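ok so I'm stuck.
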Amino acid sequence: MERYNNFQIPCDWMQDSGVISQIKLASVKLAMKYMKRVTSEIEAIDGGTEEEDLMLQGVRFAFRVHQFAGGFDAETMRAFQELKDKARKLQAHKQKQQRTSTGPLYLTAC
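replied:
not stuck anymore, here's the structure
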């Protein structure tokens, strides 16, 4: 609010009705729904770069909302944890694929 006052932006109306806290709460709820959607979409997608892109978008959006709202509620934190677990599984799966695709090469004499 101090920044608004410094730039002479009227903000008294926001304090009276609690609009800012309502916006923050709505943003947190939106982030929760978005992360749940990302998690379910990742389960539906079978590998590929789409999975990584979707995961990255979900994490970026969640981070921005977290910064804006000043944290998550318990339910949103659980949704974030689910997304985090999916990211770890994806990373482990990729590392496993890389190990198997770059396995030892056996040279035979000609």
